[in-house]
Amino acid sequence: MFIKKMNERMRLVLVIIIMMFIVIIGRVFYIQVFSYDKLNKYANALWSRNLPLEADRGNIYDREGVLLAGNITTTSLVLIPNQIKDKEKTAAALANILKVPYEDMLKHTSKKTSIERVHPEGRRLSNVIADKINALKLDGVYLVKEAKRSYPYDTLLANTLGFVGIDNQGLSGLELVYDSYLTGSYGAIKYYSDAKGEKLKLSQKYEQPQAGMNITLTINYKLQEALERELDNAINMYNPDGAWGIMMDPNTGEVLAMASRPTFSPLHYQDYAIEQINRNLPIWMTYEPGSTFKIISLSGALEEGLIDLDNDYYYDTGSVKVSGATIHCWKHGGHGHQTYLEVVENSCNTGFVSIGYKLGKEKLFKYIKDFGFGVKTGIELNGEENGILFDVDKIGDLETVTTAFGQGVSVTAIQQITAVSAAINGGILYKPYIVKSINDPETNQTIFQNKPTKVRTVISSNTSKKVRYALESVVAKGTGHNAYIPNYRVGGKTGTAQKVKDGAYLVGNYITSFMGFLPADDPEVVVYIAVDNAKGITQYGGTIAAPLAKKIMLSAIDILQIEKRDGEIPKEFVYLDPVYVSVPDVVGDDLKTAQKKLKDFNIKVDGSGHILYQSPPSGTKIVKGDTIRLYLH
Predict the structure, then answer these.
(1) Which of the residues are catalytic?
(2) In the beta sheet, which residues pair with residue 29?
(3) Residues 63, 181: one domain?
């Protein structure tokens, strides 16, 4: 009986043992099969260490592949506190090299963390500092490579490109707007350590960082350089409160150049006032446009068939009364009897009062809004403003007619150049844009391709042709004569706008501007430049902004290889204007005959005999008295 009970107990124990084994095996199976990934992550978290490697930020290029924003490799300091054997000694050595307080560095070396980044004093170290740290061979002290943003041309395009912070995050401009594309993915040097934090041999693994996407802009670096050069000239000559400019392809809406003064260095943005680094004036600054806005009123009146440029007339006495207010023309005593083409040439305010009356407030403001004023253009930059328009339902005749000549409305430069592009390109308003494409940094595969975006048709192609004709006449015969370039057919409009502060016009304080384009018969480029409160000179758009725009357009002729044109409107010269004369053909003549034909020019001769070649060639218009070279054989 006793033996029988013993056998039963043994069998029971055996069953329990077997069941325990089954449970253990089941648990092991569950852990190995179902919980492996989770537990493996826990283990890696306990024993693995990652030294972060920052990725290169995506490059920014101009339309021809010129690098505008790139990267340079720098070194940063990272500590593994568990591996630091003598924390006080290490802290003292690093503090001495980095020129920081010992107490601050001791906090870093004593941190209860697996990895401690020494920030900001250990970031972006110079090669000299990095070499000194490396030479110490300190346990737990590592130098890792980091990318630092670089701007090869420093201040060039600064307000548009923007800048980045110490962690390479975009803070302004394109760097901010496209930060998610430009930012790459971190890599790492991975290794395993023991319980004391010591690095295990043969455990190191390298994960390569992934660079951010590259961006190609519509900007032409050479045009950008030309625009900024003339803005610098404006600052040097006139000491203004500011200056800005834009260049655009009127047939696509592509921004070819954009700049403002004052500017800043993106690498040292901390040294500038916040207003200076965050205000991109061509898209942010709102102001009364003055007479450049007359292009919009003119376009509307021509589209509605309300005026005939050559056959309708207006008599300017010098002033006109509207709703009890007297509006003066800029010319004392007025311009007298004029065609409406001469009204445009002379930038006659009272003549545009009559145009405002003819249009009426509903039609005038319809065209103003159709041309894109009162709303943001949508260009892919931060900080763009809307501008301000009158509420049509709350204005009378006075506000209507002053709006017709550019007073009482508030606009931005980007709105103006976009609208004028529509007025001269055949009547199509395009959305302006500055990013041409986004590309993969390794394969160069296009991730995004921008294309011209038509917003609407605002006037007919026939009306646009008349606008071009009128604006070419402004440069040849009117207030824009300082922008005249012989052989290339320039169109344009001057602007002189009195500034407003606290609801009142300032005395002697104007924004002078010029809107120009060429060739006038088939525009390839539009230039807008504005100078805010020029000092030491009578403030007119024709005397300040027009000559600057002319120099920019001369550069554009060379850069864009714009060909000479026939059929230009002959220039009417005024006092002190340089006189342009067409160069006669002397090829094949003897020197004596050539000298008679070239009596208006300075001549330089190479060789003897008959003339084989002349420079410049015949038909070219140059300033009387300029030099002509003759090559004889």
Answers:
(1) 291
(2) none
(3) yes
